[in-house]
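To whoever is on call:

I kicked off a structure prediction for a single chain this morning and the downstream step that reads the tokens threw a length-mismatch warning. I double-checked the sequence; it's 546 residues and nothing unusual in it as far as I can see. Pasting both halves so you can look.
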Amino acid sequence: MTPGELRRLYFIIQTFLSYGLDELIPKMRITLPLRLWRRMLFWMPNRHKEKALGERLRLALQELGPVWIKFGQMLSTRRDLFPPLIADQLAMLQDRVAPFDGHLAKRQIEQSMGGVPIETWFDDFEITPLASASIAQVHTARLKASGKEVVIKVIRPDILPVIKADLKLIYRLAGWVPRLLPDGRRLRPREVVREYEKTLIDELDLLREAANTIQLRRNFENSPMLYVPEIYSDYCSQNMLVMERIYGIPVSDVAALEKNGTNLKLLAERGVQVFFTQVFRDSFFHADMHPGNIFVSYAHPEDPQYIGIDCGIVGSLNKEDKRYLAENFIAFFNRDYRKVAELHVDSGWVPPETNVEEFEFAIRTVCEPIFEKPLAEISFGHVLLNLFNTARRFNMEVQPQLVLLQKTLLYVEGVGRQLYPQLDLWKTAKPFLESWIKDQVGIPALIRAFKEKGPFWIEKMPELPELIYNGLQHGKHLQRSVDKIASELQTNHIRQGQSRYLFAIGATLLLSGTLLLINRPDWGLHPLWLMAGGIAAWLLGWRKTR
């Protein structure tokens, strides 16, 4: 480890211990070394004993910076894994992180706008931030040109060095995983960290977020399920984003949703539909769907509509992964575990030599108990633990390109659990996926492919005779090359056989001459001639190998 990495690691350990987070270490035999090691660090006492454990955890993650805050945001959606005192505190990391100075934000905005006063472009700029999260904070204002209400998002100052320091340390730790864990290579830790690094660095570019938001808005234009606010591109830069201000109920505020008369069952079902629509129809999905980025419109509570913001992290899948995922989901919903096992082998997610029957039985053992149950009765922590154990038994490799999708699915499931625990996740998703699969393999898919590629085929049709001729000529040249290589291999094989034969003769003559020279010295020069013949045979054999 470099001195910089050691300093950062020391700071992380010091922060955790100064907030007394060693209390989270379970008192088990396997954790005894950790607890003994903690007692040795007596000069790092808990300096916040008066605070509750949940608050101490939130403050520690907040002090450590964006990478850790993101981790806390993800944990905050899993109220099935944490008691309310911890989950409520972690939820504050979604949009109530300690803000930086509003006057500094104002200076950054003016700098992004070419150094002119903020009053040139905006009225009613609010110096106190509306919300503050891990990467940026937002301030309210009004466009001077049109009078429209907007929010201005500004990147936190000096945030990049902190992110890079943490990522460097995580890379170092990821490099240790294959050495420390028996199946560490299967987890592909460096690839997973590289994928996470890419998404995190991309989030620092607000021009990219603006483009993502415009794309998502276009994908759901006039949709009753999701509204995406308008972006005012003329005012955006790498460090600043200007967006339409929206008014909605935070999706985590179930009491306010009920008070507004929101149909929570339909809202939860639409959350699942929005997720699968983004993934399979558009292959472009919002990958940071924690409750701080999701609101519900006040209008039409009987026909509720989501409002999505903060599109800094998005994901996409290629056609092969989408197809395999959709078929896997449908097979799961149909309890066709044989199909699930075969799909995992076909996609290369498990080794080709995997015993399909054993893999099928292992998947059935994990998944069968969770069907016919609402979300409220399913322990996903237990299910995930069993799935990880199954994956380890069958050497299933982690797919880095699916990590974002898996994280987003956990967010969606966590939100659904809060809104309507009785939601039947399987029945909600299955019709959509079956429809998508039919659309990919039926006549509509053929017509769509012709529409997409027809102009290209028509353009290339006059060149078809020439392409066929060139293909035939290329085939002839290729056949000649193959014949030449085959001939050379045959000649080489013959020469190798001859050289082995000469080496054998040489060894025989040399050994015979040596024995005669020792046992029959009265034979004169005959043994020497035999030995000379052996050496000559060896030289000829060596020449044949060249």
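Update from on-call: the warning came from a stale cache, not from the record. Cleared it. Sanity check on the structure: The chain has a mean pLDDT of 81.
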